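Page 47, continued from p. 46.
Same chain as before, 126 aa.
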Amino acid sequence: MPGPELSANGVNGQIDLFANKICILRKGVLGFFIKCLKGDKEILISSITSLQFKKAGMMTNGYLKFSFMEGTDSNKDISQHTQDESTLLFNIKQQPAFEHLKDEINKRLRTQHTNPHDSTKSRPKP
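Result:
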């Protein structure tokens, strides 16, 4: 299997972007505690319903949160995001990689919504 197209390392884990999925890998001390509870996560891009992005500040972490069709979504404050299996925290130095990743995922989501099915594969030929 080829490697990820894009990766971003954050405070509580890493996210890898592949052609049709994302993989959230928990690394580091904070990631270790989350991984003990939930483990690594693979999500098809087609199941992502929204992205929530908060920029990092000089003294605060930012985050990239994924919502899914099958997941539960709730409004949480930043302290609750540290334990959310679908949220990755990043500091100001890590932010550019997360912005790039967010933009690429949004681009793929837009493409998917404007072209949800390849008509040449979904319809039988006459």
